[in-house]
Amino acid sequence: MPQEQYLHRSTMQTSEGPQVYKVGIYGWRKRCLYFFVLLLMILILVNLAMTIWILKVMNFTIDGMGNLRITEKGLKLEGDSEFLKPLYAKEIRSRPGNPLYFQSARNVTVNILNEKTKVLTRLVTGPQAVEAHSQKFEVKTLSGKLLFSADDNEVVVGAERLRVLGAEGTVFPKSIETPNVRADPFKELRLESPTRALVMEAPKGIEINAEAGSLKATCRTELRLESKDGEITLNSAKIKLPNLPQGSSSSAGSRQKIYELCVCPNGRLFLSQAGSSSTCQINTSVCL
């Protein structure tokens, strides 16, 4: 019985012909697939073109990017550059023969740190001032000669000459030590203490010299010339004391223009009208 059914089925398939079964995507599905494949290829080409354009604009090469080049000694940067965050470098220098510029909208700060990231030295250049924070500040010449030095204890000026060009001069709140104080040629030298005393001291001597002009010392109360172990010498062809007090004359005779210089026990000088003998004792009231 099964053999007869098999023969019957075979006879029916042979009489009807072979049947074909279609496998795949047809119709609108196939067209959508082709469209997506074409769109993907277009995106790939656009992406590739954009990548090539970016590489061209940014100047990407094997040695670096743009103005930045990677060399054996480090990084080489050409042109203007902007750093938005801190820059850490061992050495920064320009190309030979070209200057190096640092520019900032607010300030430029240079810090020197130790192993514990503690600031040892700081240089701040801001819109209002230039500040240097360190234990000692020095300025030297190319040969190594010290020109200026400052620390907590003292300020040293190593130049042969210190010139002050201010119209009001220089104010020293405390004492200064120098071997020579001199004005420029054809300029006046003025030493003044408006509210306190002016003291000049030297272990060997003080020399005040005005070769082409006069010397003037002015004070409000007292001008004292004191020599502890030596003497005071006034060496001049003319010595004038125009405002010395004059003693009263006891003689009613004719007044003459010859006076005698007298000295009181307290050192005060006064004039007394000269006579045949000394008249200083007669005018001792001036010494009171």
Automatic annotation (TrEMBL):
Keywords: Cell membrane, Cytoplasm, Cytoskeleton, Disulfide bond, Glycoprotein, Membrane, Signal-anchor, Transmembrane, Transmembrane helix. It is a single-pass type II membrane protein. InterPro entries: Sarcoglycan, Sarcoglycan_gamma/delta/zeta. It is found in: Cell membrane, Sarcolemma; Cytoplasm, Cytoskeleton. The keyword Ubl conjugation does not apply. Pfam families: Sarcoglycan_1. GO terms for cellular component: cytoskeleton; sarcoglycan complex; sarcolemma. GO terms for biological process: cardiac muscle tissue development; heart contraction. The chain crosses the membrane at residues 32-55. Its main location: membrane. Belongs to the sarcoglycan beta/delta/gamma/zeta family. This is SGCD protein. It comes from Certhia brachydactyla (short-toed tree-creeper).
